[in-house]
Amino acid sequence: MLSTSKSTHDFDPLDELLKPPADETEEDRLIRLAQEAEARRISLQIDESIKAERQQQKKKSVVRLLLLGQSESGKSTTLRHFQRLYTPSAFREERILWRSVIQLNIVRSVRTILDALSNVRLPPVDSGGEDSDDGSPHIPHDLDLLKMRLTPLRHIEALLIAKLIPPSEDEAASFVATSSVSLFQSHRSRSTERSSRNQEVFVRPGATWKGALAKTSHSDARPTSLEDTGITTKDEAQEVLRSCTNDIISLWNDKFVREVLRRRKIRLEELPGFFLNDLGRVTALDFIPSDDDVLRARLKTVGVSEYRCEMEAAAGREQGTEWRIVDVGGSRPVLATWVPFFDDVDAIIFLAPISGFDQVLAEDRSVNRLEDSVLLWKAVCSNRLLANVDLVLFLNKCDILDAKLTSGIRLSRYVRSYGDRPNDLETASKYFRSKFSAIHREYSPLPRKFYGFCTSVTDTTTTAGILASVRDMVVRRHLKQSKLL
């Protein structure tokens, strides 16, 4: 019994299976041995490859970059610059998807104008649109007819919102319901007008909205016509915008409209997503957004958005550097979400839109935009979790600042400490750089170098050079801290 049990336990079915055939010839044996040797060689090669890949992953340098700043400071545009510079193929492939965003930007600009006109009363017959006795302007009859001809844009706005935002999201349903009722109405109260104008379409982080649009469209690097993009379905929004182009141009160029916008201090040219001066081009049926168009397009994001890309080899090392760029949003209710992302971050790009010295926050009209940026900058500089983190300051929207100062708006009227300095871009930018540098020096827990740039992130050439400098500085410091350089 014991011998039987022992023989049972010693039996190995694999050994039996791998035994050479009983009738194997010498020639067959040599072939079998050669095949087994080749199999072992391939197996060892695979094992070595896996081992090398694991070691390479351990050595790979990962740089974590955080984008901070108030809402509409230019964070998303800066992120798009990184994508354009370091993952250009993917950026070009997604350009067609931004056409829907640009279409919505145009509709929203028209809506802003019509909202501004909504409380202007119709003139008496044959009044010619003169001011009323109380000094408020009357809307000319031809503009009222123009508004009626632009009514199809109401449907286009709802259509574009449905394309960009999944219908399951409550915000989308709420916004569409509100916009379909209020858009382009002739008479509303001032409070309703303000709340309507302040509503904005936003998307959640990630590629959900891109995925939905990509089902019906894609683009090549330099398409010459709509057929080259692979689009097989008609773009209803583009067709309607094309049919309304002349009316939109007439509305935008109307002297009466410009005067109403001036009185209400609405400067569409300074807002992100402004394309009214490019209508002939961007409403063409074969329009494909350029890199600049994508950078100028406005699409508000909420929540945390992380973008990963592997850049070119840095500091002479063979392997590339993987960047993880995080945009955590800038509206006041989500500022508390910044802190968890301070851990293990290599550098922060803080964007302060200095053109907002005469503006207030959209979410809190009692707070000046420049003052808000200063307070946020103080908070970031003084945070002890960031004591050893490089802070890079972008004094952004210098192009808009230049336009404001050139138009005669006095900086000293809003910033008293500016005094009687010359009211020009060079002097103003030096002043702001000095002020933000002083805050950095005073509030930083530990001494560190100040990196400050005057930027216009919609300017591709200048911003590309600045981001290259920032990239090199951040990577070099990261490698030193990681003892890889």
TrEMBL record:
The entry's keywords: GTP-binding, Magnesium, Metal-binding, Nucleotide-binding, Transducer
Record GO biological process: adenylate cyclase-modulating G protein-coupled receptor signaling pathway
Binding positions (GTP): L295, R296, A297, R298, L299, K300, T301, N396, K397, C398, D399
Annotated stretches, region: Disordered: 1-25
GO cellular component labels: cytoplasm; heterotrimeric G-protein complex
Molecular functions (GO terms): G protein-coupled receptor binding; G-protein beta/gamma-subunit complex binding; GTP binding; GTPase activity; metal ion binding
PROSITE patterns from the UniProt entry: G_ALPHA
Composition-biased stretches (Basic and acidic residues): 7-25
Residue positions binding Mg(2+): T301
PANTHER family: GTP-BINDING PROTEIN ALPHA SUBUNIT, GUANINE NUCLEOTIDE-BINDING PROTEIN SUBUNIT ALPHA HOMOLOG
Protein name stated in the entry: Guanine nucleotide-binding protein alpha-4 subunit
Native source organism of the sequence: Paxillus rubicundulus Ve08.2h10
Lineage: Eukaryota, Fungi, Dikarya, Basidiomycota, Agaricomycotina
